[in-house]
Structures are given as C-alpha cells and as structure tokens.
Amino acid sequence: MARSKPALNLQGLTSSQEIILSMSKLQYLAHTSLTREPFSKLTVGAAILSFPNPGFRNKPRILLLKRNPSETYYASVFEMPGGKVDDTDSSILTAIVREVKEETGLDIMRVFGQLPDFTYLTSKVASGTDGKEKTISKTCLQLSFAVTVAWEEFRVNAKKHSMGVWADREMVTVLEMTEEMRALVEGALERAGAIWAGIREFR
C-alpha cells in the first residue's frame, strides 16, 4: 500500500526565510545581485534530520549520500541531498522538495529553518570551438535548509549516489566530505540536538 504524501509544514520559519523559499531562481538572483559576489549556479541542499527516539536512540542523525566514483565533481564524497535550482522550478522550496524526492524517494514533512549558505567551485575540461581543450570553472552558491521527512526508509538514486547512511555526530567525523559540507552537517546536528533539548529553535 502506497504511503500518502504528508502536508508540508513551514511553521516556525522567519518571514525572510519564507520569502527566500518562495522565490524562483530568477527572483533570487535579482534579489541578491547587489549584495552578493556573482555566482554561476544556484543550488540547494537539504539537511534531513532524524531526532532522538527515547529508549531507542539518544542522538540526532542526518541523512548523507555518497557520490558515485564516476562523478565529474567531488567523486566518492558524502553530501546532503540536493542539486541545482532549475529554471522550471517555481520556487526554491519546489527545488528542495524535488531534489529530495529524486535522490532519496522521501517526501519532506517540515522545513525547520535555513542553514548557513556557502560557495564552491566546479571545474571541467571541454573542447572549445577551435578544437582546443579548455577548463571551464563555475562558482556555485548553495542554500541549505533543515528538514524532516515522514519516514526514514530511503531509496538511493544510483545515477548520482552509491549509498546513503543515517549518520550521528561520531560517524560524521570519519566520513569523507568537503570541509564546507562537514561544517554544515556538524552545525545542523548541533542545532538539532539543541532543539531536542529545548534550548532553542532554528532561526
């Protein structure tokens, strides 16, 4: 029997976070054109969190996916689910929901808040019109949000990733990932633990 898709809960987001999530790629580019360094590609990431389960698990976990060894960029490293915001995505929220569904088969249940964004570089060698090889580099901006899903049984999309794992803080320390991604993941887990302890909320 197929699971029903949960209603998406945005309660608790700040007004500025709601505005960002409602923007299309073009709207976001226009919104930030005077305040940010130029970037070539807008991407999104989802910190899919699993909170402690009393009597079973006392630490928050995050879902991480391992990139295929054949990937042109950042092969064989772990990352949060995510990808580029397409021109056809009606909003940044639409892109996050789509990427999570495509890469894990999961439906987002709640968006808690925005995590720090970061930029990264991608480079590839391609042939120019003159037949000579040249390196094409792009600066990418990633917007990341903390989310939860209705269930934890995920399905990895083999086109991009070789495996996935629910990782706690200790496991994260031994998984291979970029420095920017590790800082983002550790920060998400720290804040998730604080929420569970009733210390603060995502803001």
Automatic annotation (TrEMBL):
Domain Nudix hydrolase positions: 39-189
Domain of life, per lineage: Eukaryota
Gene3D superfamilies per the UniProt record, alphabetical: Nucleoside Triphosphate Pyrophosphohydrolase (3.90.79.10)
PANTHER family hit by this protein: ADP-RIBOSE PYROPHOSPHATASE, DIHYDRONEOPTERIN TRIPHOSPHATE DIPHOSPHATASE
Listed name of the protein: Nudix hydrolase domain-containing protein
Native source species: Cadophora malorum
